[in-house]
Write a structure and sequence with these properties.
The chain is α/β, with parallel strands linked by helices. The chain has one domain (2-179): Spore Coat Polysaccharide Biosynthesis Protein SpsA, Chain A (Alpha-Beta Complex), CATH 3.90.550.10. The protein has helices at residues 14-19, 64-72, 90-98, 139-142, 154-165; strands at residues 2-8, 28-34, 51-56, 78-81, 106-112, 135-138, 170-179. It has a seven-stranded mixed β-sheet with strand order 3-2-1-4-6-5-7. The longest helix has 12 residues, at 154-165.
């Protein structure tokens, strides 16, 4: 069971994001609209039972409070965090089918950053070396861990905390299976 959580302040990107999702392979896609600063949004996917569109007005930055709210809506299974300026890498689905089936593990993989002429490798779970789209985590590994509401590098802190609480549960898959800020 896989849930994708997308914090959203750029709804115009959601059409492109949705085209990259293989809906037959997920349980649900939770889009959490950032309604702080009196922002309003028109729901884009009403009627699709696999897409849940909710609002979060909790103060914070970088979509972190929206991620926390999205996690609270998931009871179990895997969670993948996908920003609203990114798409799912086609290789992610292959890895999911072949390797990411054991709920006793959380998984990291490599990130393609071809436009920056650098890449990140998921075998290094450290601050500044891992990004939001580079990991797939089971809800049971998260326990009470939250994304820091105001920290830009909250993704690094989050996955480092997951590793600290679950040191024997990590599997690195040496493949490029995500992008960084794919949508300009």
């Amino acid at each position: 069971m896989l849930t994708i959580i997308t914090p959203c302040s750029r709804p115009d990107n959601l059409g492109m994001v949705s085209k990259s999702i293989k809906f037959d392979k997920i349980d649900k896609w939770i889009i959490v609209y950032d309604t702080t600063k009196d922002r309003t949004y028109k729901k884009s996917f009403e009627g699709n039972l696999k897409i849940i569109e909710v609002e979060c007005n909790d103060a914070g930055n970088y979509g972190n409070q929206q991620r926390n709210y999205g996690m609270s809506l998931v009871d179990d299974g895997f969670i993948y965090f996908l920003d609203d300026d990114n798409i799912v890498h086609p290789s992610f689905w292959t890895l999911l089918d072949k390797h990411m089936d054991d709920e006793n593990f959380f998984y990291t993989f490599n990130q393609s950053r071809s436009y920056e002429k650098i890449n990140l490798f998921g075998n290094r779970i450290e601050m500044n070396y891992i990004d939001t789209a580079m990991f797939l985590v089971n809800k049971k590994h998260i326990k009470d861990i939250k994304w820091d509401a105001n920290l830009y590098q909250a993704d690094g802190v989050f996955i480092c905390d997951i590793l600290k609480q679950n040191p024997q549960s990590h599997k690195f898959l040496n493949a490029f299976a995500c992008y960084h800020n794919f949508i300009e």
